[in-house]
Amino acid sequence: MGLVRDVVILGSTGSIGTQALDLVRANPDRFRVVGLTAGGSNKELFEHQVAEFAPRYSGLGEEASVEAAAEECDVVLNGITGAVGLRPTLAALEAGRTLALANKESLIIGGPLVKERARPGQIVPVDSEHSAIAQSLRGGSAAEVRRLVLTASGGPFRGRTRDELADVTPAQALAHPNFAMGRVITTNSATLVNKGLEVIEAHLLFDVPFDRIDVVVHPQQLIHSMVEFTDGAVVAQIGLPTMLVPIALGMAWPDRVPDAETPVDWTKAADWRFEPLDDTAFPAVVLAREAGTRGSTAPAVYNAANEVCVDAFHEGRLPFTGIVDVVGTVLAAHDVPSGEQPSLDDVLAADSWARETAAQTITQTIAQIATKRGT
Ligand SMILES: NC(=O)C1=CN([C@@H]2O[C@H](COP(=O)(O)OP(=O)(O)OC[C@H]3O[C@@H](n4cnc5c(N)ncnc54)[C@H](OP(=O)(O)O)[C@@H]3O)[C@@H](O)[C@H]2O)C=CC1
Ligand SMILES: CC(=O)[C@@H](O)[C@H](O)COP(=O)(O)O
Ligand SMILES: [Mn+2]
């Protein structure tokens, strides 16, 4: 084991942040918290965390997270949710810190802007599928890789037709079959937007073209993802469906943290199921592939429109199927800027445009629904 690692945790009050702090508590000889930030919606918990870990730096909000990301440390864990994680991600990379990246949105919307600031190995994926792929690729060469296979739970509505999704409620959407996660990612798992984002994330992290990234529904989520090699061999990472291994690896990479998680019990009989995606009931992955293939600001538009729709769904203003419908409408209306690579301003402008256009589209959708119902 190496020296104790100094860790900055952004989004410390969330699902990822609190699990990271559990790992720090369990491994005081490996990790020391030197920075903590959160959004401010749970100040009491944040104050408790600051009192317990006594970090050098603590603060609330995006600016505090940008400052914390540049603190002297070994690793920054970005556990913020949403596009607001982009500037902290860029700040951590620019400061030369290893970035344990749970905040997939920042990579997806920043795309080349994030990648060009990262030296090889500087970003360690924490998203479970991408951690699984990174683990499966250890010791291999990129030339040996034929395909990446992301696993998907299928969410709480797996097996339903589009018509059967019409009246599902926010409470039902938040009942993820395997993971206890924040509201946005849990809703995204239900719509399959999470898997769409993860296809783009895999393309950016591992430089594999979209037509060589597959998704298979695996409801048990014991296989966290797989790599198919050119000789036909498939290497998978298997473990219980929790985030402890990906977070521990993110903070300790390339080391493993002993006993981070209990392994699968192979003495018990079990059935593991695999199904193809239903792109008719759940068109989010097809739409994400379109956004990713267009590139430039299109992934930022997909993500921003989705964030607005997720809020509208939870506020009871938009039906569940309206989320991906509106994202599709906004994406279709988006003209990516000319030029090879978007600037940070281009990305932020596309994000704002998508939020406004999504809000208008939601208003129109609500009016259409009311007209149909005759109200
Ligand atoms: N949870 C999981 O198992 C997994 C999560 N991820 C990804 O990890 C990220 C975090 O997810 P999760 O932990 O579930 O989300 P949560 O909603 O549980 O937590 C989000 C965290 O971000 C903080 N936050 C929100 N806005 C800001 C802001 N403006 N500035 C600073 N901090 C802010 C919140 O603070 P507060 O609430 O106190 O305001 C909270 O600490 C997401 O990108 C998600 O997609 C990926 C794989 C698995
Ligand atoms: C734990 C994790 O990485 C989440 O992204 C999780 O995988 C969600 O799974 P689904 O989106 O497949 O439901
Ligand atoms: Mn994931």
Automatic annotation (TrEMBL):
Protein name per Swiss-Prot or TrEMBL: 1-deoxy-D-xylulose 5-phosphate reductoisomerase
Residues at which Mn(2+) binds: 127, 129, 198
Matching HAMAP family: DXP_reductoisom
GO MF annotations in UniProt: 1-deoxy-D-xylulose-5-phosphate reductoisomerase activity; isomerase activity; manganese ion binding; NADPH binding
Catalytic activity: 2-C-methyl-D-erythritol 4-phosphate + NADP(+) = 1-deoxy-D-xylulose 5-phosphate + NADPH + H(+)
Chain positions recorded as NADPH binding sites: 13-16, 39, 42, 103, 105, 182
Function statement: Catalyzes the NADPH-dependent rearrangement and reduction of 1-deoxy-D-xylulose-5-phosphate (DXP) to 2-C-methyl-D-erythritol 4-phosphate (MEP).
Protein EC: 1.1.1.267
Matches recorded under Pfam families: DXP_redisom_C, DXP_reductoisom, DXPR_C
Residues the record lists as binding 1-deoxy-D-xylulose 5-phosphate: 104, 128-129, 153, 176, 189, 194-195, 198
Single GO biological process annotation from the record: isopentenyl diphosphate biosynthetic process, methylerythritol 4-phosphate pathway involved in terpenoid biosynthetic process
Keywords assigned: Isomerase, Isoprene biosynthesis, Magnesium, Manganese, Metal-binding, NADP, Oxidoreductase
Domain called 1-deoxy-D-xylulose 5-phosphate reductoisomerase N-terminal: residue spans: 7-65
Gene symbol of the encoding locus: dxr
